Amino acid sequence: MSVTDKSCKVDDAKKLMEQIVDEVLAVAHAADVVLPGVDDRKSGMAAATELATQWRRRFSSTAQDLNRHRPTEIDALNGYISRRGAELGIACAGESRIVHVSEVG
User: Fold this and answer.
1) pLDDT tens digits, one per residue of 45-54
2) Domain 3-104 homologous superfamily, CATH
3) What is the pTM of this model?
4) Who contacts 65 (Cβ-Cβ below 8 Å, separation ≥6)?
5) Rounded distance, CA 82 to CA 103, Å?
6) How many CB atoms lie within 10 A of CB 35?
């Protein structure tokens, strides 16, 4: 894989992560849910990056489930945001994409 290919994948992943952070913030705001320490995209991305960094050294339960071809908690997490967004009239395409990929992958 070329450096350009890797860079594109990183850019695509960052864009999806930003989209998901924006969706979570929009749903939380509409539902009057306070996310301590997360007020905007910048703080949401910082929190998401911190979690990703911590989990990089571990074999997450989702990774274990995927490895064993078992259902994951992705629908419970991302699916909830997608469904709650729909109830509140907020499009959550990123969340729906994650759920769809986990179901067909």
Assistant:
1) 999 888 888 8
2) N-(1-d-carboxylethyl)-l-norvaline Dehydrogenase; domain 2 (1.10.1040.10)
3) 0.77
4) 71, 72, 73
5) 15
6) 13
